[in-house]
Amino acid sequence: MRFLFDDASFSFEALRAAGFANYGGADLGEVLVTARAIPDGDEASWHREWKATAERVEKLGRKSLADGHRVSAREALLRASNYYRTAEFFLRDDPGRDPEVALLSARSRDTLVTAMPLFGFGFEHDVSIPYQRTNLPGYLYLVDDSGRARPTIIYNSGFDSTLEESYFAIAAAGLARGYNVLAFDGPGQGAALREQGLVFRPDWEAVMSPVIDYALSRPEIADHQIALFGYSLGGYLVARAAAFDSRVAALILDDGIYDFHAAMVNGMPPFLSEWIEQGKDDVAMPVVQLLMTINTQARWALRNGKWAMGVDSILDVPRAFKQYTLAGVADLISAPALILDPDNDQFFKGEPRRAAEAMINSETTLVTLQEDEGAGEHCHMGAMSRVHQVIFDWLAQTLPHD
Question: Active-site residue 232, yes or no?
Fold first, then answer.
């Protein structure tokens, strides 16, 4: 499905930005006028135009806030947060040292954090989760201020998503249905990567267990009603964590991933993946560099992977991905799992079914959402109402609550 651009990566990211309109994260007119000023595949224009839109919309929100118009302010600030995230997306030349990456990420965070208290639900933006010798940043969304223990969803983002995306991806829908949501940036993600330099690790149980420890320290979170929501690569991460932590009451994999490396190399010519696997860097590197010049998605994935995985070479990225597999641990997962499967997933085609078939000791529910109902893209972008209907109807039966 193409949306505003012929370039597949630009099309998907534009759809992702526009799809959050469901929960106030975009206005279609703003998306259209921004996109029409961006030549297909022009990353510099993408950054410039989305940033300009974000700044303009933030200014509108700040003006409304100063004038005491809370609803107008929060609506504009939510959109600005999403647009700043979108503007930052393709800045991957040297993201760890690029001040523009830091600036846009900070603005995405600040606009969201300013908007949240303008709603009627509870929101804590200064959650700090002890992890090794540091702390992971988080947000806690609470249905109300009653202090009542409620079922809670832990949001785990993916290879490129951020803590600020949590409101649109799951929190808004969860709050409307009586679920608290605890969101965090883990190693390789959001502020944990950008501000602390923490990079991904495949043994995600070492990350999730401290997050669950923190959740259980909060009286607002019901001890035996914690569900993990894995978004994109998070579908692997939370499944891996659940294999080693019996405190997980339910799993939502959006989408399911059995083998991240297999999904990555499926987009490469077979000879190229063999050269990389065999360490033939001298012949593989020129081919990879050529691929990156003509394919936006490959260029972004390898550059982002080098940064987020903490490796020295783009050729080390697919090698690092080999550790991100459920092989050998899938049968340890016992929590019931909803595994979502977009039928037109350009990244992880077939992976949800592989995960479901391997999780033999979990009661799995595999749901394929179709392209012809607008829900066939990765993570069902552009169909947030439909995917949340599936998620929460299943969750209501799996973790029933008043």
Answer: yes
